[in-house]
Amino acid sequence: MDMVTLQSLLLPLVFMIGGIFLLIKGGDWTIDSAVYIARRFGLSPMVVGFTVLAFGTSMPELIVSILAVLRGSEGIAMGNVIGSNIANILLVIGSAALISTMYIKISKGLIKDLIMMLLSSVLLMGLMIYGDIERISAGIMIALLLAYVFLQYRMALKGEIEVETPEGIGAEDAEEELTSHPYIFLFFGLIAVALGAELLVRGASESAVIIGVPEDVIALTIIAFGTSLPELSTSIISARRGHSDMALGNIVGSNVFNILMIIGVTALVKPITHHSYAEQLLNFDIWVMLATALVFAGLVVGYRKINKPIGITFIAAYVAYTIYIYAINFGS
Fold first, then answer.
1. Three-state SS at 214
2. 262: which residues sit within 8 A by CB, 6+ positions away?
3. pLDDT by residue, tens only, the chain of 332 residues
4. Which helix (H) or strand (E) segment is 206 a member of?
5. Is 165 exposed, middle or buried (0-12, 13-18, 19+ CB in 10 A)?
6. Any idea which fold 3-330 has?
C-alpha cells in the first residue's frame, strides 16, 4: 500500500473513528435518558428491560444497516449483522472470560434463548440460500421477534426468568445528570447515533473502494466491532462484578435482536437481494456465524462455564478469522 493510498485513507478513517465515537456516546445518552424517562412514568424495570434497553442497545446496528441499504450498500447491512454476531461471542464473551470465569446456571429461560439464537441463525442462512430477503420474510422475522419478547415477558411475570437492568444504565451517577434535562439528552443521543451511523457507513464505503476490498468485509470487521462496543463494555463490567449471567444474556439476546430486528426492519425498508452482497457472506461468513453459535451453545449447556483458556481460544479464533477474510480479499 503506497503513500498516496494511505493519505487518501485518512479522511475515511477519521469518519469511521468519529462515527464509532458518536454511536457509543449517543447510545449511552439515549439509553440512560430513555430508562430515566420510563421510570418517571412508572414503568417497571421488567418492562424497561424488554422495551427500552433491548431496542436501545441494538439501535446503532439498526441505524447503520438502514442507512446502508438506503445508500445502496446492502452488503454493509448483512456484513454488520453477521460480523456483530461473530464478534459478540468470540470477542465479547472471550474478553469477559479473561476478566472472570463465567459460571453458568442452566434455566428454562436460558435454554429458550439459546434455541432462539440458533433458530434465528438458521433462518438467516436459509433466507440467504433461498435468495432474496423480501418484505414478506422481513415481516415474519419481526413477528417472530415480537413473539419472542412476549414469551420472555410472560416468563418473567411467572418468575421463570430474572430481569435485571444492566450495570451502569440508569445508575445514580447518570440519574443526577439527567434529572433536569432528560429529553435534551434523549434528543442529542438520537442525533449522535444517526450522525455516527452516517459517518461510519460513508467512511467504510470509501475505505472499501480505496483499499480494494468489498465493503461487506469492512462491515464484517470494523463496523461490526464498532457497533459491538456497547455489548463489550457492558459484558466486561458485568463479568468484573461477578454477574456472568447478565453478560451471557446480553450477548444471546443481542444476537437474536441483530438477526430478527435489524435484518427484518432493514428488509422492510428495502428488500435485500442475493446479488447485493458478496458471495463470501453466504459461502463462508454465515457458516462461521452458525458454527460459533453452535460451539457457544454447546459449551453453555455441556460445560457450564467459560473460563480463561476458552476466552483466549475465542479471541484467538476471532483474530484468525479477521486476518483470514482480509487475506483472501487482498489476495484476490
1. coil
2. 58, 61, 62, 65, 77, 80, 81
3. 555 456 677 887 888 788 878 877 776 776 677 667 666 766 555 455 545 555 666 777 787 788 888 878 778 888 889 998 999 999 989 988 988 888 888 877 788 889 999 999 999 999 999 888 999 999 999 999 989 888 877 776 666 555 555 444 444 444 555 555 777 877 787 788 778 777 777 777 777 777 777 778 888 888 887 777 777 766 776 677 676 666 777 788 888 888 999 999 999 988 888 888 888 899 999 999 999 999 999 999 998 889 999 999 999 999 999 999 888 876 55
4. helix 182-211
5. middle
6. A middle domain of Talin 1 (1.20.1420)
Question: Which cell goes with 108?
Answer: 428454562
CA dist 9 and 6 (Å) reads 5
Distance between CA atoms of residues 94 and 96, nearest Å: 6
